[in-house]
Description:
Chain B is mainly beta. Chain B has one helix spanning 78-85; strands at residues 3-7, 10-18, 24-27, 30-38, 43-48, 51-60, 63-68, 71-76, 93-95, 100-105, 112-113, 118-124, 127-132, 137-142, 149-150, 155-159. In chain B, strand 6 and strand 7 form a beta hairpin. Chains in contact: A-B, A-C, B-C.
Amino acid sequence: MLKKVLIANRGEIACRVIRTLRRLGIGSVAVYHHEDRLAPHVKLADEAVRLEGDVPTAAYLDQDQVIAICKSTGADGIHPGYGFLSENAGFAEKVATAGIIFIGPEAEVMRLMGDKIRSRIFAAENGVPVAPSAMQEGDLESFLKKAAAVGFPLLIKASAGGGGKGMKIVRTAGELAENIRVAASEAQRYFGDGRIYAERLVELPRHIEVQVLGDGKGNVVHLFERECSIQRRYQKIVEESPAPNLPGKLRDEICAAAVRLASAAKYKNAGTIEFILGADGAFYFLEMNTRLQVEHPVTEMVVGIDLVEAQLRIASGEGLPVSQKDLKQTGHAIECRINAEEPEKDFRPATGKVGILRVPEGEGVRFDAGIVQGQAVTPAFDSMLAKLIAYGPTRAEAAKRMERALQELALLGVPTNIDYLARIMRNKEFLAGKLHTGFLAQEAADLAAPPLASEEETAAILAAAFSDPDFRRIAFEIPEPYASIGYWRN
Amino acid sequence: MSYQMLLAEQDVTIEIVERRPSLKIKNGDAVRTVLESSGPDGAFAVTVDGRSYSGWRCTVGDEVHVRMGGRTFIIGLPQAQLRAHVHSKGDDEIHADMPGTMIAIHAEAGASVAAGDKLVTIESMKLQVSLVAPRDGVVDKVHVAAETAFERGALLVSLVPLVQDTEAPAKGEASK
Amino acid sequence: MTILKSSLNTGDPEFRRRYAFNKKLAAELHEKQKAARHARPQRDLDRLAKQGKMTPRERLEKLLDPGTPFLEFSTLAANRAYGGESPGASCITGIGIVSGREVVIHADDSTVKGGAWYPLTIKKIVRALDIAIENQLPVVHLCDSAGGQLQLQSDLFPDKYYAGRMFRNQCVLSKMNVKQLALVLGQCTAGGAYIPGLSDYNVIVRGTGAVFLGGPPLVKAATGQIVTSDELGGCDLHTQISGTCDYPASSEDEAIAIGRDIVAQWERPKKWAIQQEPPEAPLYDPDELYGIIPDDIKKAFDMREVIARIVDGSRFHEYQPAYGTTLVCGFAYIWGYKVGILANNGILFNDSTLKGTHFIELCNQNNTPLLFLQNITGFMIGKEYETAGITKDGAKMIMAQVGSHVPKFTVMCHASFGAGNYGMCGRAYDGRFLFTWPNHQIGVMGGEQAANTLAEVKLRQLERNGEAVTPEILADVRAQTLKAYETQTSAYYSTSEVWDDGILDPVDTRNALGMAISASLNAPLGQQGYGVFRM
């Protein structure tokens, strides 16, 4: 087993990894940029070393510095978290060369799955359904005909891309040429690789993903599926497991396809295979993320496995910690991402300070925070502040617990989407499990903040006024007899 | 004297009408009987005409974030309300208050600046000082070139004046 | 303390007649006050609005703490002077609460001839500053005046208590550690520049505020220099370069907000510990006062009925109830503050004068403030009384009253004629506050008495000179005297000349006194001791 692990990350995931390291008695090393000096992961870890560099995010991406700190602190493993260097094959190689264990898959598999075109081909070769598509194999001219053959509507995507960047929806043949041209130039600009491909667009699909663990020798288990359809700007904000209203047979098919893919790649450590599921029951491979995902807690709560612990054991050479026959889903878990943003202003990111943080404590409630009271929320890092997870014996119970937890959660000093998330939990379509990736746009009217009752507005205004010492003085510190005489003119 | 605040960029006024036997406050057209109490960590309870509302509040600068009844309000205190309505010439021009030399220009004409951003660095009496933008805005012109000396009172930087409209919502944003 | 028993019968026709009469007087008072406070030619209001200025009443309401009272002095000053050109004598003075502190407020009224100072304006402002000195109350000046009325300069410039006295009072206040704040909301020219100049703190509004010893017209006339108000003495010059003004403000709203914040910096005053109880409203309805006060200056009424409708719980501890019954003396509480009351129930005789003197000493012994409720037409005169020493006795009462170290308050409820005014703490006797009622009359003697006396004098003169005495001549003397006295003894004339601090609607007396007593506690008690009592 690893003795000491450096977490090459920050925020809530760094805290979450440290928690498991603590529990297992493994030493922890945190790295942090000066902007993050008050962040909780710095204090939680056994050791903390400062990263040099002007730009905060660049510091966390400084591979040589991270490896140097790993060496100087004597850590024998690096956990990359998610984002940052977690899917950087070059980094994984450097780490291995330095004689340090990279807690994740091999570099080669990262490269394969990081390449949208190669991974699709690999999936198709291994019996994993892929959406009708066309690859760009020559110039844009020849690609045009092949793309049109895919059928409309279709999506033009960047081969080296992700996260929705550079994607174009094309509904008619007339728009195709121009969109191809623009998508190629954007791909070059954003990702440094101008290759694109066209894929049939499944309208209003559900985003279903499968968590897998592999031992690197071809043995793979799946820990069932997650539903992540509730997204805005291609970013998930509510995830859950199991996926609601999913027929058992279909679930088994999807999970089996995921295992097939991971097994064929001889995948090592934790990973997630993402699919899109059409209303007709047809599902297609989207991509594989060769790392731990933000929403992994919902799997953990429903399956009862600590995924970070599993990662550590696999990385230590202990093989898979569990067998497929021992894995089953019990109950239901929902996760809400708490972001510093203003939903009513098109989810514009907000900055401020965490003045008050009051964590909800209910049965089945888990709060994975990356912030502490008093910490500044700056544009230096992304806007996710914490994750709130609720577990219940049924989906309805989990949603109710989540709603209550959101009411009790007080995170004040920076605008957040907490109230917006609570409205999702009350939404009829959500409670009926009728989800798809266009859900938030479809339900926008219902999810908008309802108008205020005048007395409620007065109460809020008064609450603010009473916090002002000047107002309190004019309310309470007027001497007698003036206070008793009140408003009077002779 | 009425106490003026800002809620969702609208001016809100509250007036204390009576203190004995109980505190009565007017907001809009209604006069309401008010009781209040506070707890640790920003917890509060306000009773309005007998109905109790509780939650948490937290002051950030001159705004108070209030979480109550499953909603979060951001309410500007009088300081914020005044800031939103006051616009003075002193906010458009930056003058030198001693003679000196221009050392460095950090924001050229046309640059967008936020309140507090460095505009220029000047040297005076062997001391270098950076002058900052008094408000958010756009630099109109830098009047003194680098390595050039200036007299006391010299105009160093001017910002593009804001259009002053007392009927526009606060913070100069266009109304929806 | 026992609750006063009222023998008032509100069904009585006498009561009803008096009620109607006094209710009408009160209504008239409110009408006149409303006009003096608010009625202004529209063009003056428009001019102010165009300059971006608020009216002084608007400024006042923004300055004062919400839901608090304001006791205004001499609202009707100058109502019988200058052809009515200067309502309120072009200024507002009074006591109010700013940021939780009792302050004296002086606001120039620029809606009246640009706020120019008339002689009575000066008198009213000096009086307000005297109140500040005597009671050690901080002062807030809202300055916006065109300066002194040049045509009337001989009545407002040269003498001891004219314009210079304002600035002298400011210095005395400062020396006493009593704070002053000036908000320069308009022009402060010539002497007027000293108001912010001598204030401990001042705020100036950019654009409309200006402070200069000589304004642009004067400067041009004197040196030929042409310069604008702003260049000569505006906000930026005085706050950035000359250092004459402390805080710049871009608007009147901002200036007032800054002013309130400055007052909030001042420490809370230490008041002397007057005997106090929780306050209690009077048992009897103060509205009944209208039916108690007579509709004729010569008619009497029982002051106990008045006391019962002013004091807490209508409770009164009467001193020497059986002796000197034309002067009611006793202890009571008003708004929780202990006071010693002397109230006239007839003319002053030897016994009532001695009783009053003794009672004043008792109040000084107990550190109890004195309240004089006047309805006095004079001392008893005649051979019997002079032999008994009424002159000596009156002298003793005046000596005791003047030697008092406790604060004194006077309300002239009806008549205030002759020497009785002196003993009962008239204007000359440094009472902290002096208020009157609309039915009140003041003079060396009543009009009828004066008419009779002067007719008698004329008769003797004619006889001495051997001239014919006709009824017409005597009637003429009588009529002229009556007419003059009617004008000059009226409460409105008195308040016009600032011989008092304002006419009160009788039902407002309790609140006014509560605030007055509270304000007076800011000054420590003086040294005990009297002069020589002629025994």
